[in-house]
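Materials and Methods. Structural model of 1,2-phenylacetyl-CoA epoxidase subunit B. The 103-residue sequence of 1,2-phenylacetyl-CoA epoxidase subunit B from Streptomyces tendae was retrieved and submitted for structure prediction as follows.
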Amino acid sequence: MSTAREGAPASWEVFLRARRGLAHQHVGSVRAAGPDAALAAARDLYTRRGEPLSLWVVRSDALHTASPDERDPYFAGARHKPYRYPEHYAPLTEKGPEGEHHE
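The predicted structure was written out as tokens:
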């Protein structure tokens, strides 16, 4: 993998998991020559408060992403599949005009 400029430190994306059960969150970026240096820089910059459970760094050029501008197929709803939406289903029981239950 090459960097933007030959000899320049690579850009690394930083992901942090603050508490047990929570997903990792993207918290920012650092520049570093390698993964160990990137972890050290990320620790110094992003873990000042609290004690995170986990810290990840991923080279920016190794990420494959989809932009919200690319609505289909990543972000568009599935309106052609109405069974995925709760409004597609009728309630199991409804009260009639005199209070009896209908199914």
